[in-house]
Amino acid sequence: MQSKIALHKVSSSQISEIGHDPASNTMAVRFKHGGTLYHYKGVSAEKFEQFKTSESIGSFLGKHIKGQHDFTKIIEKKE
């Protein structure tokens, strides 16, 4: 079971929240469309820092994360 990663709101046209767990090198991304949450594996703290401080996190995700890191769609339980 994946541990819960704290998410922080970001300014992006595609992405609403991001987070990172340095213990497992897992990056969490919640998309605005549908509110779907994905976990990307093998993302270092350094790469996450570059991601969150990039001029466009959507562009960075497309160029440096997608296709380079395996991901899991997280099915969240409604409380």
Describe it for me?
The protein has 79 residues and is an alpha+beta fold. It contains 2 helices and 5 strands; from the N terminus they run E-E-E-E-H-H-E. It is globular, with a radius of gyration of 12 Å. It starts with 7 loop residues before the first strand and ends in a 5-residue tail after the last strand. The mean pLDDT is 93.
Main features:
single chain; 79 residues; alpha+beta; 5-stranded antiparallel sheet; 2 helices; 5 strands; 23% helix; 30% strand
Beta strands, count: 5
The low-pLDDT segments are none
Helix count, per DSSP? 2
> What would you call the structural class?
alpha+beta
If you average the pLDDT, what whole number results? 93
What Rg do the Cα atoms give? 12 Å
Estimate the strand proportion.
Answer: 25-35%
Short structural summary:
This protein is α+β, with helices and mostly antiparallel strands and 79 residues long. It contains two helices and five strands; from the N terminus they run E-E-E-E-H-H-E.
Helix and strand layout, with pairings?
Blueprint lengths: L7 E2 L5 E7 L4 E6 L5 E5 L3 H9 L3 H9 L5 E4 L5
Antiparallel strand pairs: 1-2, 2-3, 3-4, 4-5
